[in-house]
Design goal:
CATH class of the largest domain: Alpha Beta
Order of helices and strands: HHEEEHEEEEEHHHEHHHEEHEHEEE
CATH topology of the largest domain: Rossmann fold
Radius of gyration: 23 Å
Distance between the termini: 14 Å
């Protein structure tokens, strides 16, 4: 095997959040970049040309004391990335690290205290470099210090960022994980989060509105339970109404776009879905102006203060809505479809959402697809079709699977890596 593509040796630089590589690590990055180029020279040139058309792409990822990695320094060449390896080899950890360069808690929804490497100093850091279509580099970092493990530190171009929400103006993510295979069978909360991620990919402001709504709702609840100032409660209810109605409107727009989106080559592979939103605000917006819905929602919150105080939570709002999905061809709710059909519906929705983002002329923030165990339950023809669709959409994608043969249909269109021994190494398909 060639020189390790991932520097994975101790001691790791624990507690430096986020990691800021020095000149020597830049040399290591250059070496790992060369080592990871396993394709032919022509294929690499073609990949570079496609990457330029795709716009910004992740070129380097550095981990310090993150999950199973003491130290990792990865270079990517712009092609889709296929990571193969046994269960527990650290494949999903790479996807999770990438997803943390964005709002929220990443693909696993993990707590911050779950992210440091066991046996490490208690801190962790993820640093990423992106290259835009013009060749300019942007740097993003996130992590936590050992002394303050519950406080996430975020940086953009070596300057402190206000929080993970600041990343959404620069990067967008869509992901699918095995935990989502039961999305249509679980409670409404998971489906709301799925819809909100899709909406966030189209509109970065959606995340800020959601955060503002949740903050105002928590403050109002605390005020109601403590018997606080009614005037302050009214002010918080106005904030909830403004942001809550905007959230509902954003979801409605995403649902309408998903229903209309057509992805070339997908119709015969992944079933089309019909989508409905179940929620009082979403329903009200179908027949009234947003300003009128806001006014009515604020008024209803005021009249329900006692009920909400007794219940310990607000009983009305976008946090109570649900996403309903139907198999269009069969006219059947997704929850009644087979496991394979549900997986195919999920993939179809993600592809449709990616198509929507691709069609946005003003999309300044690139989209990155994170697809964990994406090919596990697909037959060879459907796998090959999926890979061709992803390639045609033109977004950078990171995929994982237990067997590198699952990614054979990519050929040299993808960069192939293998996870083993706490590191990633270049892989060949033969």
């Amino acid at each position: 095997m060639s020189e390790a593509a991932v520097t994975s040796a101790g001691p790791a630089h624990a507690g430096t959040a986020p990691a800021r590589p020095d000149a020597s690590s830049g040399a290591r990055g250059a070496a790992s970049h060369d080592a990871l180029h396993g394709a032919s020279h022509d294929a690499q040139e073609n990949a570079s040309a496609r990457a330029a058309c795709r716009g910004a792409r992740l070129t380097r990822l550095i981990l310090n004391d993150f999950r199973s990695y003491a130290r990792a320094d990865l270079a990517f060449d712009g092609r889709p990335v296929a990571i193969a390896g046994a269960n527990g080899a650290g494949k999903t950890n790479i996807l999770e690290a990438i997803s943390l360069i964005g709002p929220g808690r990443g693909v696993r929804g993990a707590r911050l205290d779950e992210l440091p490497r066991i046996g490490g100093a208690g801190g962790w850091a993820v640093s990423a470099r992106f290259m835009d279509a013009g060749g300019d580099e942007r740097r993003f970092g996130v992590g936590a210090e050992p002394s303050r493990p519950a406080r996430r530190v975020c940086r953009i171009d070596d300057a402190a960022a206000s929080g993970p929400g600041a990343f959404s103006d620069h990067l967008r993510f869509l992901w699918l994980t095995p935990a989502m295979d039961r999305l249509f069978m679980e409670g409404a909360g998971e489906r709301r989060r799925f819809l909100d991620r899709m909406t966030l990919a189209c509109d970065p402001a959606h995340g800020r509105r959601a955060s503002a709504f949740e903050q105002a709702m928590r403050q109002r609840q605390r005020l109601l339970e403590e018997g606080g100032d009614p005037a302050l409660a009214s002010a918080l209810e106005i904030q909830m109404a403004e942001n809550g109605v905007a959230i509902a409107a954003g979801r409605r727009e995403t649902a309408a776009r998903l229903a209309a989106a057509e992805v070339a080559g997908a119709a015969d592979l992944f079933p089309a879905a019909d989508i409905a939103l179940e929620g009082e605000l979403e329903a009200a917006l179908a027949d009234a102006k947003a300003a009128d819905v806001e006014e009515d929602y604020a008024a209803r919150l005021k009249t329900r203060r006692r009920l909400d105080a007794e219940a310990g939570r607000a009983l009305l709002g976008p946090h109570r809505s649900d996403l309903l999905v139907y198999h269009r061809g069969k006219g059947r709710p997704a929850r009644l479809c087979s496991t394979g059909e549900q997986k195919a519906l999920l993939i179809g929705l993600v592809l449709a959402n990616a198509r929507i983002v691709a069609a946005q002329e003003s999309a300044d923030a690139p989209l990155i697809l994170l697809l964990d165990e994406i090919a596990a339950h697909l037959d060879p023809d459907r796998r090959a079709g999926l890979f061709s669709i992803i390639d045609a959409l033109g977004f950078q994608a990171f995929m994982t699977g237990t067997d590198k043969a699952l990614f054979a249909a990519w050929g040299e269109r993808a960069q192939h890596l293998e996870a083993c021994g706490g590191a990633l190494h270049p892989a060949t398909l033969t």
